[in-house]
């Protein structure tokens, strides 16, 4: 039986585990220092901007198309398997356009229509009629994507873990990797054959793991650091090998995002039409009756490499949300939070492929702002590399 070890149980690692758990002949073990759905996943808004994305062709669009398509079947599949609902919004995404030049959007509408993914351009009158909660004085038009959706990332990840467990996947939380055993091959190639772990709880003993046939690293910002000892304690140059045999050196840097949870006195707009609304990179996400998430900021490290949340940037995002949805001003803030997104440098996001020099070590990381969106496409890519 083929044994696969996955490091990381955010949305990407959990999706890979569940995807692979449906294939006969695979034994799957998932490791994480924390409980599932922490870090980037726990902070995400779950806005799946696939069809409405300006990524019109190539790998970025193919991954988005595959993932959006997958979510429409994955959600009911998981709900049936775990016998509970997963909070999500199928009423689409509405993008507010504040610029006069709408040609790029018309081109995208034409491209998507030819590909079977409809988008609609609404004028201001149509927008006001369908979303009366919006202030439209700045708006030139709106683009509506009926097939894009939003999902609660934490609940989705927990559902994936539960469903994968039902399929026989073993999860070990509160553990860390202490050592890798590797073997060498001709042409300066290696394979990882053993992963040794220890419990972070001194009172517990970590289980011994079987020999490894494939190692999948999906640990987000921790992906590169957890591979420090992959070859006898010496860090090889961490690179991704693509099918073209091009090798791209990269690092992963943290980009902070802040968001908040609001409760308003009354539901905003039409109770029968509550899409995610986005404008100027600010998202308004309906999550419950009279409740909304608003976010998120994009904050890069300073000159010292530190990432510290700037409260003024969240205030600016909230002010912008209120400017086109004034009813939010009456809301009470229930919660504020922040999280770090893994952004690759020297490599397009996400970084999915073989670790340089290794025949059986795969990276599935660096998704930046699209981890939830691209998790199904990433899982499919990993499956194709393992199941040949």
List keywords for this structure.
single chain, 388 residues, alpha+beta, eight-stranded mixed sheet
In short:
The protein has about 400 residues and is α+β, with helices and mostly antiparallel strands. It has helices at about 10-20, 40-45, 60-80, 105-115, 125-130, 155-165, 310-325, 370-385, and strands at about 1-5, 25-30, 45-50, 90, 95, 120, 140-145, 150, 170-175, 175-185, 190-200, 215, 240, 245-250, 250-265, 275-280, 280-290, 290-295, 330-345, 350-355, 360-365.
Residue runs with pLDDT of under 50 for 5 or more positions: 232-237, 242-248
How are helices and strands ordered from N to C?
A: EHEHEHEEHEHEEHEEEEEEEEEEHEEEH
Average pLDDT confidence is: 92
Strand order of the largest sheet: 9-2-1-12-21-20-13-14
Distance between the termini: 15 Å
Inertia-based shape: globular
Helix and strand composition category: alpha+beta
DSSP strand count = 21
Helix count from the secondary structure assignment: 8
Q: What is the percentage of strand-forming residues?
A: 25-35%
Q: How big is the Rg?
A: 22 Å
Q: What portion of residues is helical?
A: 25-40%
Largest sheet, described in full? 8 strands, mixed
Give a verbal description of the structure.
27% of the residues lie in helices and 31% in strands. It is built from eight helices and 21 strands. The strands form four sheets. It has an eight-stranded mixed sheet, with helices on one face. The chain has an eight-stranded mixed sheet with strand order 6-7-5-16-17-18-15-19, sandwiched between helices. A hairpin with a 2-residue loop joins strand 16 and strand 17. The radius of gyration is 22 Å and the shape is globular. The two termini are 15 Å apart.
